[in-house]
UniProtKB/TrEMBL annotation:
InterPro entries the record matches: CAP-Gly_dom_sf, CAP-Gly_domain, TBCB_Ubl, Ubiquitin-like_dom, Ubiquitin-like_domsf
Keywords: Chaperone, Cytoplasm
Native source species: Pycnoporus cinnabarinus (Cinnabar-red polypore)
GO cellular component: cell cortex; cytosol; microtubule plus-end; nucleus
Main location: cytoplasm
Protein family (similarity comment): Belongs to the TBCB family.
Domain CAP-Gly: 193-235
Name by which UniProt lists this protein: CAP-Gly domain-containing protein
Keyword Chaperone part of the UniProt annotation: yes
Keyword Chaperone: yes
Subcellular location: Cytoplasm
Superkingdom of the source species: Eukaryota
GO biological process, one term: cytoplasmic microtubule organization
Length: 256
């Protein structure tokens, strides 16, 4: 006699799988299928004989005598449609349809491994101290060190460096190096430090005469106060600090 088949989901505390069963199987034969573990592609026929069709892969870890199989309309259903309570009844008797769920409960979990496959509370943990971890060569830390990744990367020459110390006090009298012979540019130091218009340390000077380029500000950023054309910014190596009195500069009429 030929029986039709049904596709169902079989779930247990540790497993979930999709399987096809003959509706002519009895509940007792179904339990054997669910409990058996085999890597050989065999299948039991209705009388328990072998025939090569499908793998027996439904592994629940629940012994046959402990199984209680409920039929649910879906996996998120909370109420069973029925319980396969009679081992002699065929699956077709219970009206099982495609894509319903056979939920296998363990009536005596103390005698099986049910639930232990997903219980990690008793699993020994492998732990290392920070010192032991740092000494290992098979870790992410060791990989980063070997390949100079992240905080182990080489410092770039373009990284910001501490500004050099410049011994030019604010308020000191000074003279600025000039390319013109016998022309001395004297003034007072008003600012020493970094600027936004160029890298490095700059010295802001208020000249004694209007021979400068600004009023202590550059591109809208003010560094010190002075009259227009009295201010200038120069590199520290062009500045000489000392006792430089104010000198009057006489401009010829042709240069005015």
């Amino acid at each position: 006699m030929m029986y039709s088949t049904v596709n169902v989901f079989v779930v247990s505390p540790d497993t979930r799988s999709e399987r096809r069963f003959d509706l002519g199987l009895t509940v007792g034969q179904l339990k054997v299928r669910i409990a058996v573990f085999s890597e050989v592609p065999v299948r039991l026929d209705l009388n328990g004989a072998k025939r090569g069709q499908n793998k027996l892969e439904l592994i629940t870890g629940i012994p046959v005598q402990n199984q209680e199989i409920s039929v649910l309309p879906s996996e998120d259903a909370t109420q069973a449609l029925c319980v396969l309570a009679d081992d002699d009844k065929k699956l077709g008797f219970y009206g099982i349809h495609d894509w319903q769920v056979l939920k296998v409960n363990d009536l005596n979990p103390a005698t099986s491994f049910t639930g232990q496959l997903s219980d990690t509370s008793q699993v020994d943990k492998f732990e290392l101290s920070e010192a032991e971890y740092a000494q290992r060569q098979d870790t992410v830390l060791a990989y980063k060190q070997r390949h100079k990744i992240g905080r182990f990367a080489d410092r770039s020459s373009e990284e910001p460096q501490e500004p050099p110390h410049v011994d030019i006090p604010i308020g000191a009298r000074c003279e600025v190096e000039s390319a013109e012979k016998d022309f001395r540019k004297r003034g007072t130091v008003r600012y020493v430090g970094p600027t936004e218009f160029a890298k490095g340390i700059w010295v802001g000077i208020e000249y004694d005469e209007p021979i400068g380029k600004n009023d202590g500000s550059v591109k809208g950023k003010r560094y010190f106060e002075c009259q227009p054309n009295f201010g200038v910014f120069v590199k520290p190596e062009r500045v000489k600090v000392g006792d430089y009195p104010v000198e009057e500069i006489n401009f010829d009429d042709e240069e005015m």
